[in-house]
């Protein structure tokens, strides 16, 4: 299912705000109503997931500011950003 420009740009903004450099580097979507293939949204989420996992590797589990979610190997804040981006994109 194609992704609306606004949904892609909103997801990009969520991930950028959470600290993703790869999301920040992606171009703002402006397809003129043509929409983007859903694969673009999945690729964005997958790339940011890998980036966050790499960034969060070695984060102490009991850190007061942000705990590591052991199931997904990233901090709760990064996990929440991935989930919010997926929701904007209509992904599971």
Q: How many extended strands?
A: 2
Order of helices and strands: HHHEEH
The radius of gyration over CA amounts to: 14 Å
Mean pLDDT: 84
Largest sheet, in brief, is: 2 strands, antiparallel
Report the span from N to C terminus. 13 Å
- Kindly give the count of domains: 1
Shape label: elongated
Entry summary:
It is built from four helices and two strands. The protein has 92 residues and is mainly α.
Structure report:
The structure is a single chain. This protein has helices spanning 5-17, 21-25, 38-56, 76-89, and strands at residues 68-69, 74-75. The two termini are 13 Å apart. A hairpin with a 4-residue loop joins strand 1 and strand 2. With 92 residues, it is mainly α. Helix 1 packs parallel to helix 3, helix 1 (5-17) runs antiparallel to helix 4 and helix 3 runs antiparallel to helix 4. It has one domain. It is elongated, with a radius of gyration of 14 Å.
Describe the protein's topology.
Elements: H1 5-17, H2 21-25, H3 38-56, E1 68-69, E2 74-75, H4 76-89
Antiparallel strand pairs: 1-2
Helix pairs in contact: 1-3, 1-4, 3-4
Any key phrases for this structure?
2 strands, two-stranded antiparallel ribbon, 92 residues, mainly alpha
